[in-house]
Amino acid sequence: MTSIVGRAFADAPAARRSFLLAFLVLGALRAWFAAVLPFTSDEAYFLYWGRHPAWGFYDHPPMIGWWLAVLDTISDARFVLRLPALVVPMLVAAIGWRMLRRHGETLAWSGATLLLLVPLNAWNVAVTTDVPLMLFSALTVALYLRARESGRALDFLLAGLALAGALMSKYFAGLLALAILAHSLRHPTRASLAGLAWIVVGALPAAVVQIAWNAQHCWPNVMFNLVNRNEDAGFSWRTPLLYVVSVLYVLTPAVALRLAGVTGRRRAPGRGVQAAAAGPSAAGAATGAPAGAPVAASAAPPAGADERAALRWLAVVPLALFAALSLVKTIGLHWLASFVLPAVVWFALSVDVRSLRRAIAVAAWIALAHWAAIAVLASLPTETFRWWKGYPGLVMTAHGDELARALEPYRATHAIASDSYSPAVTIGYNLGQYVLVFGTGSSHARHDDILTDFRTLDGRDILIVQRKEVEPDQYEPYFDRVQYRDIEIRGAVFHLVDGRGFRYPAYRDRVLEEIRRRYYQVPRWLPAGPCYFCDRYFPDRACHR
């Protein structure tokens, strides 16, 4: 594979053809996957954000909800809704190409190809909050480097506006903001401080919007990201090891190890790649050696040293902060996606031709392994996984249309519910109507607390669908009469609870009070303000500790 890649990236025309081949092949595979992969619960959850557009949502900032609001007006087909996930990795590769182009066409096409081939870009098609974050983070990095070079206030302001887009996508953009701050203050000058001020001016509106919305809605983003979801946090030796593996996977081993300083020496690869691609005469000219004379890889003077240093800071600072957090918490793979671009572009500028080609070859093998696994899994019938404890959830996701048909008779007479957000939004997407969450649920995805007003359901009949067994007397206190029924779909059993005559006062005093106590105890260091949950159900009780 390495020798094949060597020929494929021997010069600029070959590298361009190889990029276009990877672009078309991966584009076709990912388009097929986006069309056939069942819509996941997280995707369905974000779709309901789009169907109720707002300045903010329970878990995260609103950007993906806004994007899906637009796409949903076109179609609710999963392929259409996943268009951002299909397009953004290609745009990130294009941004990487643009950043590398001034160092040589061969290097630019090679780096862009590596960006296409890193695992999450090569196969993922899910439309989540990370998708807009990836795009705006890449734009922030590119514009920040351009601003550092030009020194123009407008370029710094544009970098700030891109950072605002990232902050409106997901709060992990704050790590990129900290990286920019750290790099700007590393060797502060009047110009760098002025540029930093313009970045703050550009990004500030996003922060104001989020603070204002949270202050009017029980501070849910703060509660979720800093309080409620971290109840199980604690020191573990496993989570740092898992984080190391995650970084090696997301960045590919070559990029991750080089970034950590484990492999390689500092070289001047930008020039080296150009020289190697252009031939021995050009290489000699680049180094001042006679034409045809052998050229050492270290002979080229450093190219874009400030650019490489900035890219390394923008990649390492967020990853280092995640490393510290991994001591007490599991770091998700998708958390790292938005920091791939600075790491890969830095790598392309920091290695010689052979190392870059080897990294592309390894990434290609990893991508091939993923698509082979996807092909095998796609060819297997769902029943193959009946042994798995998560099989009912798999059936609910993969064959939600069959479950929706079984629930059709209840639509006209009942409010449809489930016992947690994942089945609720999955059923709702396939049923074509909103499905509420009945019960305490968990700390995740509690936007249903904003959308559902249980006071309006008093006396209504509610059908609750759940995957796990119903506990004795679990629902009797909340209804005048309860009937139970099981349905089986492809060997998975779903439990239906037919509750007649919903008793709102009992539900408020037991379930909603537990939710208030568990998830809406806002810390006293946050200013008190309107709270949809307490104002609606407990106007006589505060949501502050």
Task: Write a compact overview of the structure shown.
With 545 residues, the protein is α/β, with parallel strands linked by helices. The chain is 60% helix and 6% strand.
Give your account of this protein's structure.
This protein has 545 residues and is an alpha/beta fold. Helices cover 60% and strands 6% of the residues. It has 26 helices and five strands. The protein has helices spanning 2-8, 12-36, 41-50, 63-74, 78-81, 83-100, 105-117, 119-123, 130-150, 153-167, 173-186, 190-215, 220-227, 238-251, 253-259, 269-278, 280-287, 305-325, 340-350, 353-379, 391-398, 400-407, 421-431, 448-451, 504-519, 532-537; strands at residues 415-418, 436-437, 462-466, 479-489, 492-502. Strands 2-1-3-5-4 form a five-stranded mixed β-sheet. The chain is globular.
Major beta-sheet overview: 5 strands, mixed
How many helices? The count is: 26
**Poorly predicted tracts of residues:** 266-303
Taking the alpha carbons of the first and last residues, their distance comes to: 61 Å
Counting copies of identical and different chains, the oligomeric state is single chain
What percent strand? 5-15%
Radius of gyration: 26 Å
Work out the number of β strands. Answer: 5
Strand arrangement across the biggest beta sheet: 2-1-3-5-4
Label the structural class: alpha/beta
Overall pLDDT confidence? 90
Percent helix: 55-70%
Overall geometry comes to globular
Sum up the structure in keywords.
60% helix; 545 residues; globular; 26 helices; alpha/beta
SSE blueprint and pairings:
Layout: H1 2-8, H2 12-36, H3 41-50, H4 63-74, H5 78-81, H6 83-100, H7 105-117, H8 119-123, H9 130-150, H10 153-167, H11 173-186, H12 190-215, H13 220-227, H14 238-251, H15 253-259, H16 269-278, H17 280-287, H18 305-325, H19 340-350, H20 353-379, H21 391-398, H22 400-407, E1 415-418, H23 421-431, E2 436-437, H24 448-451, E3 462-466, E4 479-489, E5 492-502, H25 504-519, H26 532-537
Parallel strand pairs: 1-2, 1-3
Antiparallel strand pairs: 3-5, 4-5
